[in-house]
Structure formats: structure tokens, C-alpha cells
Amino acid sequence: MTAMAPREQQHQVGEISVRMLRAGEGEPLLFLHGAGGWPGWIPFFDKLAAHHEVLVPEHPGFGTLEKAAAIRDIADMAMYYLDFLDGLGAERVHLVGNSLGGWIAAEVAVRNCARLQSLCLISPAGVRVKGVPIGDNFIWSPEEAARNLFHDQAFADRMLAITPTDEEADRLLTNRFMAARLGWQPRWFDPALERWLHRITVPTLVLWGENDKFLPSAYAEPWRERVPDVRVETIVACGHLPHVEKADVTAEKILAFLDGRRA
Amino acid sequence: MKFVCFHLMPYRPLDMAARKQHRSAWVVLPNSLYDPVKGAEEYESYLDQLTYAETLGFDAVGVNEHHQTAYGMMPAPNLIASALIQRTKKVKVAILGRALPLTSNPIWIAEEFAMLDNLSKGRIIAGFVRGIGTEYHATGLNPSFSLERFQEAHDLIVGAWTRPGPFEFEGEHFNFRYVNLWPRPYQTPHPPIWIPSMGSSETIRWAASSERKYPFLVTFSAHELVARYLNLYRDAAKQFGYEASGDQLGWAAPIYVADTDERARVEAKAGIESLFNDYLANPWEMLLPPGYTSLSSMKNTMRVRKALGSRAGKLTIDDLAESGTVVVGSPRTVREKIERMRDLTGFNILVSLLQFGVLSNELTRRNMEMFASEVMPHLKA
User: Fold this and answer.
1) For residue B142, which residues of chain A lie inside 8 Å, CB to CB?
2) Which pLDDT tens digits describe chain A residue by residue (263 residues)?
């Protein structure tokens, strides 16, 4: 497979304009990133873009807080993405999200699945399992965060070896601000969401890294129990970011799931 | 100059070896390290010290609010204020302050202050603060909304104190069909409001505005920062069209006085260094949770200012005295340092922390006595 160069464009929804990468052809697949921020174009997307038109927007409030004042909580973010989907020009999309992005995707889906063809949640936040504490990413030092996000510490080592420029540091700080706005309290979940998971009427795949130290894999259970048409799969020897740490396996599982649905 | 004898009420019997195994003396430090028998003795000693401050001629005694920490044993400072009211006759009782954003119902704060004001027949000074960053870990409150909640809670409390009730309060965070305070405050129109702060420019402008003119206290900062922030307040006042008086400008600092500079340094060393290195030190993730400050000032902070107590390596009493964060020395040295700040800023409220860290009762008492007899009289005029 050859890597393809994504196009970067500004995508406008109401007052808010965000960066979005797109590449590939086929049924559109929209990827929603996690609290760490917009990933840019990573190898995982190449795999998906061999079969789909892949769209990777940055969430409002990430990278810059400008114009994001109206996004005060996860419900606002869900409504924003419903607008986003209405304005995309595609009839329906495959919606994929990791962590915070998975949470947003689920909040969209419980509100309205009309624009969705399928849903794929990679270690999503949004639902709490009592008695199973999650990691406190807001108290972790940068070193702890890197170590706890990955199972294979070589990924953490690479992340820690990078010294961000002032501009990058500012963006990371901005992401942290927006992440706190959405996820500080209740910590990384919405008490209402679990009650409405039965409203997800599209085929759903839930993927979880078996060694996730931020959201333990036990957090897959409520999704398995309450989403009507759901398949849950574990990714072995993997932390919280399977699309980074196990990009090939994760992409293959998603493509197989989407393929199976078409057949 | 007006003098406040301020206390943090640290838990001194802390096992420091155990403390060092944790990232902070706040929030994550296991409370198995708190011994209630020793803690009860601490409260008794500290109440005695603050009561003695009245005898020594201080204008006010001061307490404050912190949660889940060995740094200070006053999660509910109004309880201490109430005890102090019973033990004193004339001295003002300053709560510096209550953390307004942390409560779900700010009317409780208005009610408690009004009660204290009645109980003391008008001796209360009401400090309003945001609470330091760690409080947002301790309470779970979202720091993103801290400033909004502070300002809204302030409007609600001042409204409750001054507007005829019942009235309705309609806010973003707080909504009440009935606001109708019983009792109303003893002082008219309400207890003085002071704003202790570590110096955010937003807070300085807000406090200085002409409809508020709230005294602003800079806490625990290097000499040049204290001078800069107090002068920022002066400048802000000028922009609002008036000249700030010295009674609007306060400086809060740990102070230790002994016969000689050297003796003061030796006696204060363990107390000062434990205050900054063991009790106050916090990683920046705890001290500055995201959203607690504006993004622009956070960017600035991360680039320019080393967060208090979070820099690598231990602070020594010499570093802290050199930067003017603490004032330690003979009566003459201490007087000169205070006078220098007065020359630079015109400030007229000195909030002195005369017990700090592990400083013993005996040394605290000597410090208080010497400060009251050798420093205060020279500056009172």
C-alpha cells in the first residue's frame, strides 16, 4: 500500500472553523481525536484511507480556544458534531473515535444516528464503571502521562525525547484547557450517557487495549451490555492509544468490521 | 500601617520522611499521617497564639481556607473565626479568605459571614479567594469555571448582604428563586471585602475597579513581584479614575524577628524551609490545573515565572530572604525591609505570618513578642 498525501482544509460549521485532513476514496470515515489533541496524519489513517475517504478534523477548542466559547461541555460538543455532520455533504459516515473522541461519537449517536453508517469506539471515555478507578491524567507529570498511555515503553521514550517548540507547547496547553473543560467533572464521563446507549442503532465496534492504564479495559463492559448491535474486541499488549501503538492491528479490525457489515 | 497576625495552622507533627514519598502535602498525602490527638493540641496552640495577638496590639487576626492538606488545618476557617470571636474582644477577625467558587451554594458563605459579623458585633473582614489550584483537585470542581463562579458568587453574596430580600438571583452557575438573608450583616453596608491573591492581572483589575476598591493582598511572592503587583493595582486604580490608598494595598509574608540577623536566620531556618519545601511545594499539575488561570496568563506562567515552590531543588532560607519572599532578621533589618516596600508601593496593610512550617510554639511566641514590641510601634504611625 502506498501512503497518500492528505489534503488540509479549513472546515467551517457556524462560527467555528477547524483544521481537517482528508485523503482516500470510498465511503467516508470520520475520525474524532482524543484529549491529547489533533494527531495530524498518522500511519493508521493510511491503512483506512486505502478503503475509505478519511476525514480527520480538529475539535473546536483544541489548538485554539478562539470561537470555542459556546462549547462548554460534552453536550455542546455533541451538538456541534451533529451540525458538522449535517454540513459535511455526505449522506452518512462511519464514525470512529478514540478516548474523548469516542465519547463524543457516542454522545452524537445516542442523540441521532441518521448520519451514521457505523460506529467504532476505541477505548472511549464517557461511561464510568464504579469501583474501577481510572488514571488521573490531570495530576500526572508529562513523564507519567507518556508512560501510562503506552504499554510498549518505546513509544513513551520517543514521546519524551521530543522537546516541543514554544508554539507546540502552547497548543498542548490549549488542548489541556479544553480537555479539562469537557472532562474534569464528572471525571471523563457523562452520567446520562449510559442510560441512553440503547439508542445507538448502528452496528458498533468497541476496541480496547488490554493494558490501558488510563481507562481500564473493564470499562468495555457497559458498552457490551447496553449497546444493541455491538462487538467488543481486545487488543493485546496495548495501552490507551491502539491506533498509535498497534496501528496495523487496530486498522485491520476496523476494516474487517466494516467489511463484514457490507457483506 | 495596619498589622494582621495571620495563621495557616500547619500540621507540624507530620512524618517528613513519609511526606517525601508523596508528590505533595496536599490532596494525595494519606490522612493516616494525621494523628487527631496531636492535631487537637495543634489547634489549641494556634488559637492561643492568635488570641495572644490581640494582647500584643495587632489590628486583626487572620485565618484562611485550605482542603485536604497538612499545609493548613482549616478547611472551614469560619469555625476558627467563631472560636476567635469568643476569645477576643476588640481585634478584627479576618478570614483570608473563603474560596467562593468551591461551594455549590454561595448563600451559605453570605450567611456564615453575616452570622460571624453579628456574633463579633462587626469585627469581621471577609476575604474572597478563588482557592489555590490544588483545591480543584480536592473538590473535583472544574477549574475551567473557577473565575466565572468566583465573580458570580461574589455578586450573589454582596447582593444578599445589601439588597432587600427576598430577591431572585439568575446566573450562569447559580440560580436561586429566593435570596433572603437572615441574619443580615452587622456592619453597614457589609463586612469589608479583601482580596488575597497571587497576583493575576485579571484579579488585580477586578479588585481595583471603582465600584469595588477592594483591598488587595499579595501573598508569598518575591519582593519585586509584590512591588510590581501592588503598583499594577495602583495603575489600574488610576485607569478607573482614582488614586488607590495604602489601605487598599496589602502584603502577606512570613516574618521572623530575633535580636540579631544571624540568630533570626538560625531560628527561622527549619520553619521557613519546611513551609516552602515540605508543606507548600506542589508540582505544577496540582498548583495550576488547566483553566484555573486564563490561557494567556498560563502560557506566560509556563514560560516565565517558575511556579511557587515547584522549581527543581530545595529552597533555602537564604534564597527566600534574598528574593524578599520572607522577611527574616533583627528588628532593624525587618523594619527596613518593610519600609522599603512601603516606599516602593505605599502599602499600608501588613499580613504577617509569624508561625510557619514546623516553627515551635516557643519560637513563635518570641517572634510575635519581638515583632510587636520592636517592629510594629515604629511603623504604626
Assistant:
1) 180-181, 184-185
2) 456 789 999 999 999 999 999 999 999 999 999 999 999 999 999 999 999 999 999 999 999 998 899 999 999 999 999 999 999 988 999 999 999 999 999 999 999 999 999 999 999 999 999 999 999 999 999 999 999 999 999 999 999 999 888 899 899 999 999 999 999 999 999 999 999 999 999 999 999 999 999 999 999 999 999 999 999 999 999 999 999 999 999 999 999 999 987 64
Q: What is the CATH code for B2-379? A: 3.20.20.30
Residue length of chain B: 381
Q: What distance in Å separates the CA atoms of residue A16 and residue A12, rounded to the nearest whole number?
A: 6
Render A19-39 in DSSP notation, one character per residue.
Answer: EEEEE--SSEEEEE--TT---
Cα dist. B28→A131, B20, B33, B116, B281 in Å? 19, 12, 11, 32, 13
Tell me which residue of A101, A145, A107, A108 sits closest to A124, measured CA to CA. A101
Domain-wise residue ranges, chain B:
2-379
Q: Report the predicted TM-score, pTM, of the whole model to 2 decimal places.
A: 0.95
Residue A233 grid coordinates: 474486541
Three cell numbers at B144? 475551567
Q: Is A167 on the interface with B (CB under 8 A)?
A: no
B252, B290 contact by CB (below 8 A): no
CA distance B13 to A178: 40
CA geometry: angle B152, B156, B162, nearest 5 deg: 140
Question: What is the ipTM score, two decimals?
Answer: 0.95
Measured from the Cβ of residue B147, the count of other Cβ atoms closer than 10 Å reads: 19
Determine whether B222 is exposed, middle or buried from the number of CB atoms within 10 Å of its CB (0-12, 13-18, 19+): middle
Q: Which of B142, B286, B299 sits opposite A184 (nearest CB)?
A: B142
Query: In a 3-state reduction of DSSP, which class is residue B143?
Result: helix
Decide if B125 contacts B192 (C-beta within 8 A): yes
Give the CA count within 13 Å in the CB-facing half-sphere of A182: 31
Please judge whether B285 and A180 are an interchain contact, meaning their C-beta atoms are less than 8 angstroms apart: no
Select from A65, A139, A170 the Cβ nearest to the Cβ of B286: A139
